[in-house]
Amino acid sequence: MSACLELEHVDVFRGETRILWDISLALEAGERVAILGSNGAGKSTLLAAVTGALPFAAGDIRFFGRSLRGLKAHEVSGLGIAIVPEGRRVYRDMTVIENLEMGAYPKPARGRLRQTLAEVLDLFPKLAERRDQRAGTLSGGEQQMLAIGRALMGRPRLLLVDELSLGLAPLITRSIYQSLAALDREITILLVEQSVEQALHFSGRAYVLENGRIERHGPAAELLQDPEIRRAYLGL
Ligand SMILES: Nc1ncnc2c1ncn2[C@@H]1O[C@H](COP(=O)(O)OP(=O)(O)O)[C@@H](O)[C@H]1O
Ligand SMILES: [Mg+2]
Predict the structure, then answer these.
(1) What is the pLDDT of residue 229?
(2) Is there a smaller number of Cβ atoms within 10 Å at the N or the C end of the chain?
(3) Residues in a beta bridge with 7
(4) What's the rounded Cα separation, in Å, for the pair 7 and 59?
(5) What is the C-alpha separation between 232 and 236, in angstroms, rounded?
(6) Among 12, 13, 14, 86, which is best to mutate for testing ligand 1, by the most ligand atoms less than 8 A from CB?
(7) Is the pLDDT confidence value at 93 over 90?
């Protein structure tokens, strides 16, 4: 059986500028993995290469063995990869329910919209309470729940989450991580975070990205104990 996601020697440019260098990583189906790194390390660029928002110049990215080279973003999402973008990007003038329905555009998801909607509202009861409210009136944490819910509406097999905790209080961040932890293991999760501690508690393994290169990787429990990681990312 092939891995859910594999990157092999991937280079990514933005214009003339090389942002990612020789990135190799792999996620088995059902794994929860974090990519850690400070602002500007290249985390969002890496996710953009996976979703087809940016091309990759060298190497290969494979999803269950199938190369994503040359695919457009809508083709990648059609295969079952969904992203929760940095800054959430909910449709502020649409209601909670309308936002969620927007996420059900991949063809196999459309026919199961009612069922998936019920599952998402069950996972995030706050969204059920606010179902007819406009998204712009929600708190930051609720908007993050909505952005995750919208991604789940596409019934992805791989969920990419960019900066889950950015701008959120620790308590609400923890509750969102708890909801993610309750998700079916059929959904593989790749998480990108500047805020390292909760991400490591959630993930089984992590990669550390610095200046566009993977500098470290290992089991989350090991990285949490690592003096260098603690100094650089945990402020200890
Ligand atoms: N649209 C863009 N055009 C050019 N350079 C960009 C763009 N977005 C990001 N960059 C640059 O790419 C590098 C990595 O950015 P990014 O992937 O957003 O990092 P992170 O998500 O880890 O904060 C940074 O040096 C940033 O300045
Ligand atoms: Mg980013």
Answers:
(1) 85
(2) N
(3) 25, 61
(4) 8
(5) 8
(6) 14
(7) yes
- Superfamily of chain region 1-80+157-167+185-236: P-loop containing nucleotide triphosphate hydrolases (3.40.50.300)
> Strands 32-36, 188-193: parallel, antiparallel or unpaired by DSSP?
parallel
pLDDT digits (tens, 9 = 90+) for 33-48: 999 999 999 999 999 9
Range(s) of the chain covered by CATH 3.40.50.300 = 1-80+157-167+185-236
Q: Which residue has tokens 């993977």?
A: 214
CB atoms within 10 A of CB 105: 13
- Contact 37 CB / ligand 1 (< 6 Å): yes
CA distances in angstroms from 96 to 83, 103, 130, 147, 153, listed in the order given = 18, 11, 7, 10, 12
- What's this model's pTM, rounded to 2 decimal places? 0.95
| Residue carrying the six token digits 């269950």 | 64
Look-up of token digits 């993930």: 203
> Is the shortest distance between the CB of 45 and ligand 1 below 6 Å?
yes
